[in-house]
Hints:
Elements: H1 8-25, H2 29-36, H3 40-47, H4 55-65, H5 93-96, E1 101-108, E2 116-126, E3 131-137, E4 147-151, E5 158-165, E6 168-175, E7 183-192, E8 198-209, E9 219-221, H6 228-240
Antiparallel strand pairs: 1-2, 1-8, 2-3, 2-9, 3-4, 4-5, 5-6, 6-7, 7-8
Amino acid sequence: MSEIELSEAxxxxxxxxxxxxxxxxxxxxxxxxxxxxxxxxxxEKALAGRRPFTLATxxxxxxxxxxxxxxxTGRPAPEAARHAPDALGSYSRESVAWIEGRYLTLRPxxxxxxxxxxxxxxxAWDADSARLVFREAERIDAPFAxxxxxAVPSQSGMIYLVTNWHGQHxxxxxxxxxxxxxxxxxxxxxxAGRGTQLTPASAPxxxxxxxxxxxxxxxxxxPEAPGHARYRDYLRRVHEDGxxxxxxxxx
Length: 251
């Protein structure tokens, strides 16, 4: 029983609670792993969404933190909870089910000129919070993997992947899927600048049904890699096909 894996929704909720507890108590992941008698690798992978939490790991974390991480499940959602909050577009699951899935995600590498950063984005319905949520996986920089809520307002016809971590925001703005199920848009985030500074940055972003990346995989894809040209063509569509506009600077 202790090796039972929790659901994706439960794992996402537990990861969020653990991250908040770490920040609030100002303890490191290494310290928590030692107190919970689990490996740091196991904790890192679960927090990054690369593997689900098991019942045994969750119980040990609860004992180390002195708080419950599991919510009661199986209760029917009240009528008001069957739709996402107004701030996310007031959508029902039925109206956005076509967005759920796993996507190969492409953007330019912020560290290596000419390289492309490829990872997975999973979008799924979270029954506890009555909304679509997303999480990133297969990132080579796993500690920086993002998760958050999905907004689908009817007015703009766009899809927004929103991360809000204690007031620090990261936003992806995507057009609705085309006939191939591909979504294109832009990512606005922070990148490492000089010294310890963080600098706002935007980049083209492509989300493709995961089978599109089965041949070339994930990671930092350099210009010499077999899949680079194909991945680059996907990113070029953002501007060339009019999915987003990048205004030339006036400086």
